[in-house]
Specification:
Blueprint (H helix, E strand, L loop, with lengths): L7 E4 L5 H12 L3 E4 L4 H13 L3 E4 L7 H14 L5 E4 L19 H29 L2 E8 L11 H21 L4 E8 L13 H5 L11 H12 L10 E4 L7
Parallel strand pairs: 1-2, 1-4, 2-3, 4-5, 5-6, 6-7
Family: Belongs to the short-chain dehydrogenases/reductases (SDR) family.
Pfam families: adh_short_C2 (PF13561)
InterPro entries: NAD(P)-bd_dom_sf, SDR, SDR_fam
């Protein structure tokens, strides 16, 4: 079950953390994986780890916020290697300037734009680049990695991030309905607190917050990778337009 042999996947932001976990999991199940990252060296590192394990992967660095670059790189890859059957929209967070919790009244309009650019419009850019081909072939799996911040309010300054992630959730839901008859499924994963060590960051406030998670730990890249494998598989063809909360039980839905 859940074999992905003969499928080709694009995973954005896959040079580290959750993205790497997703790319590795898809490759392990037989998919050819295009590893995207804004930093070419990070993409190459993920490709090396996949190929060393016997999988097939290619580095495909570009900035998801650059619509022209996204379209060009996707077209070139599909001509050179294979058309995409699977898209995982994982790239996100705070954009090039990083993510520092700030309450809305202390933000500037420039901050509003960068959060939307990467977390919402980046999703639209990559989706648009692969969607026509998927519809023409009457098969596609689109998975958007969002956040619980797009569903549940919080008091500690993540309104811009939450707004953009909430937009990505709503976009994916409508996308699913528009393209269901063309053999496309589109679903969202709303992630809870993830282990910062997976992205090479030191322990932060999330470590203390993890004590309140029912299962007793932070999320790991492999948790997300396993769910993406399922949603990308033939066995999940009747699941679309859904938002799955992966959060260790905090909160339940």
């Amino acid at each position: 079950m859940f074999e992905l042999d003969g499928r080709t996947a694009l995973v954005t932001g896959a040079g580290q953390g959750v993205g790497t976990g997703i790319a590795v999991a898809l490759a392990r199940q037989g998919a050819v994986v295009a590893v995207n990252d804004i930093v070419a060296e990070r993409a190459a590192e993920t490709v090396a780890s996949i190929t060393e394990a016997g999988g097939t992967a290619y580095a495909l660095p570009f900035d998801v916020t650059d619509r022209t670059a996204v379209a060009s790189e996707v077209r070139a890859f599909e001509r050179r290697v294979a058309p995409f059957d699977i898209l995982v929209n994982n790239a996100g967070n705070g954009g090039a300037e990083g993510f520092r919790p700030t309450k809305f009244r202390d933000t500037e309009p420039a901050d509003w734009q960068r959060f939307a650019d990467v977390n919402l419009f980046g999703v639209m850019n990559t989706t648009r680049a692969v969607l026509d081909g998927m519809c023409a072939r009457r098969h596609g799996r689109i998975i958007t990695i969002a956040s619980g911040a797009g569903i549940t309010g919080a008091s500690f300054g993540i309104s811009l991030y939450g707004a953009a992630k909430g937009g990505a959730i709503a976009f994916t839901r409508h996308l699913a309905m528009e393209n269901a008859r063309d053999g496309i499924t589109a679903n969202t994963l709303a992630l809870g607190l993830m282990d910062p060590a997976a992205s090479g960051r030191t322990a932060s406030v999330t470590t203390e917050m993890a004590k309140g998670i029912p299962v007793g730990r932070l999320g790991r890249p492999e948790d997300i990778g396993a769910t993406c494998v399922f949603l990308a598989s033939r066995e999940a063809e009747w699941i679309t337009g859904q938002t799955w909360q992966l959060n260790g039980g905090a909160p339940t839905s």
